[in-house]
Design goal:
Blueprint (H helix, E strand, L loop, with lengths): L5 H4 L2 E4 L15 H6 L1 H7 L3 E4 L3 E2 L11 E5 L6 H13 L3 E6 L9 H8 L11 E2 L20 E4 L4 E4 L14 H16 L4 E4 L41 H13 L5 E4 L5 H4 L12 E2 L3 H4 L4 H14 L7 E3 L8 H17 L5 E5 L19 H5 L42 H5 L5 H14 L1 H4 L2 E5 L5 E8 L2 E8 L5 E4 L6 E6 L8 E2 L2 E4 L4 E6 L2
Parallel strand pairs: 1-2, 1-13, 2-5, 5-9, 9-10, 10-11, 12-13
Antiparallel strand pairs: 3-4, 6-8, 7-8, 14-15, 15-16, 16-21, 17-20, 18-19, 18-21
Bound molecules: alpha-D-glucopyranose.
């Protein structure tokens, strides 16, 4: 893939559609709302939007339970709205990536209704049906990702079906050739409509152990953790045969020019990178969530970058993610000052960055009162802090009621900071986080060194992460202070440069030498040799 491939140079922006912009006053965001905000995304400077599922769904898992892969849920609009959205996005030079949820359907999907209608149904084998275990209970010890057994008893046909998530999300049987064909056709349906790629939900889950062996116990399990952690997921996910499916999906995308395949994969590095596939014929971008899980200090993050760069296969293109609709927001994890450093890290590392809506205005930790809880995971396993509502609250557009998100009652409460923290106010504030994001994105666009350039770490004292990015004759230095004290970065004697951008947005053009002073919580991008 040449270095000007759009998904290598570009920035992906994730939209959680329920929370971006409501256009009809029902308190839930929709496609028309996204369309109305396209100019904001162009102003911000991102290249592609990925929209979490918008398909017909009973919304047991807010769209990750699909009842029709080729339809739009009326909550979000209709196919005409989708066509209009993609047309207008493309007219502005924005790419559009859809979420594809192949591991499971809704239990209301016609395929599952048919499958559960009888043991001899032609679609019986489209899902995973098993007889009870020897004790009459579930067939094995697999746990649902949302707690409890992953097996649901079906009284009418006297078998269990498997669901890695909610019981309303039965897993498809990806060992069945008809399932694969039907699902690849749904990809083509959207590719024909012009979508630029897919983010594939829980792609590492698609194939399960052929013998359904029990998972081994996890000796490190603590009761404060989600129940899924009681066992190591040795047999229920990441099976060798999954790579065949990934490469088949990739082949479908390759029937069309310039499409991107992104895989959602929560696995340790060495297993994650296998999803690039042999000869890079797997996912273009197996999502790299390591920044989400690594402690926010220079030593650990520095080590992580090194290990990731080392683990990548030859020619495999890196990517970085700071947050998404399943993870506590970066602002909540590291606080407002380090959120600026995090933005600079995300947008200067080698690899495609994925931003999460709302992070650019600094939405932090939002407390959800018990009566407002929506997330089924929080309802299934309450009190452990597993709920994902805090990172799914509505976007703040202006200082009006409900932040300009809706004229009705929002489906989740807004962050109480919204009257003073919204796009309209922050975009005119020269020192805001939003302004920083915009400058970072602009700089990344202007300097190929920052997007597709080479990467090399620079040795630094405690609290500092430093690296060089270069392309052609241009050399840039990035120095980030992850601590709250002033720090100095010592570079080789005679180093000369000038500041291109500081996270505090006030040191532009400042000349720097071999000793670079970083303020507390400050990041700098420096052009070297000038
Ligand atoms: C993925 C989604 C998450 C969803 C789950 C089941 O992890 O990101 O939101 O609940 O899959 O589809």
């Amino acid at each position: 893939m040449p270095e000007n491939t759009w998904w290598k140079r570009g920035i992906v922006y994730q939209i959680y559609p329920r929370s971006f912009q409501d256009s009809n006053g029902d308190g839930i965001g929709d496609l028309e709302g996204i369309r109305q905000r396209l100019d904001y995304l162009v102003w911000l400077g991102v290249d592609a939007i990925w929209i979490s599922p918008i398909y017909n769904s009973p919304m047991a898992d807010f769209g990750y339970d699909v009842a029709d892969y080729c339809g739009i849920d009326p909550i979000f609009g209709a196919l005409e709205d989708f066509d209009r959205l993609i047309g207008e996005a493309h007219a502005r030079g924005l790419k559009l990536i859809l979420d594809f949820v192949p591991n499971h359907t809704s239990d209301q999907h016609p395929w599952f209704r048919e499958s559960r209608s009888s043991r001899t149904s032609p679609k019986r084998d489209w899902y995973i049906w098993r007889n009870p275990g020897p004790d009459g209970g579930p067939p094995n010890n697999w746990i649902s990702n949302f707690g409890g057994s992953a097996w649901e008893w079906d009284e009418a046909t006297g078998q269990y079906y498997y669901h890695a998530f909610l019981k309303e999300q039965p897993d498809l049987n990806w060992r069945n050739a008809e399932v694969r064909k039907a699902m690849y056709d749904t990809l083509r349906f959207w590719l024909d409509r012009g979508v630029d790629g897919f983010r594939v939900d829980v792609i590492w889950h698609l194939i399960k152990d052929a013998e359904f062996r029990d998972n081994p116990p996890n000796l490190a399990y603590q009761p404060s953790q989600a129940e899924i952690n009681r066992f190591l997921q040795v047999y229920s996910a990441d099976q060798p045969e999954v790579h065949e499916v990934v490469s088949e999906m990739r082949a479908v995308l390759d029937e069309y020019p310039h499409r991107v395949l992104i895989g959602e994969i929560y696995l340790p590095l060495e297993r994650l990178v296998a999803y690039y596939g042999p000869d890079l014929a797997g996912a273009h971008l197996p999502f790299n969530f390591q920044l989400v899980h690594t402690a926010w200090n220079a030593r650990e993050i520095g080590t992580l970058i090194k290990e990731y760069e080392t683990a990548l296969p030859e020619g495999g293109w890196p990517n970085w993610v700071l947050g998404n609709h399943d993870q506590p927001r970066i602002g909540a994890r590291v606080g407002p000052r380090q959120a600026r450093v995090a933005a600079m890290l995300l947008l200067t590392l080698r690899g495609t960055p994925t931003m999460y809506y709302g992070d650019e205005i600094g939405i932090g930790k939002v407390e959800i009162p018990p009566e407002a809880v929506q997330d089924p995971w929080e309802k299934n396993e309450p009190g452990l802090g597993l709920g994902r509502d805090p990172e799914r609250t509505p976007m703040h557009w202006d200082g009006s009621d409900q932040g300009g998100f809706t004229s009705g009652n929002p489906w989740l409460p807004l962050d109480p900071s919204f009257p003073t923290c919204h796009v309209e106010g922050l975009r005119n504030d020269p020192s805001s986080l939003l302004t920083l994001y915009r400058h970072l994105i602009e700089l990344r666009r202007q300097h190929l060194a920052l997007s597709v350039g080479r990467y090399a770490p620079v040795a630094a004292e405690r609290d500092i992460i430093a690296y060089e990015r270069w392309h052609g004759t241009e050399r840039l230095l990035v120095a980030l202070n992850l601590g709250h004290e002033p720090r100095t970065l010592s570079l080789p004697h005679r180093t000369m440069g000038r500041v291109l951008l500081s996270t505090s947005l006030d040191r532009r053009e400042e000349p720097v030498g071999a000793q670079i002073d970083l303020r507390p919580d400050e990041g700098l991008i420096v052009a070297l040799g000038t």
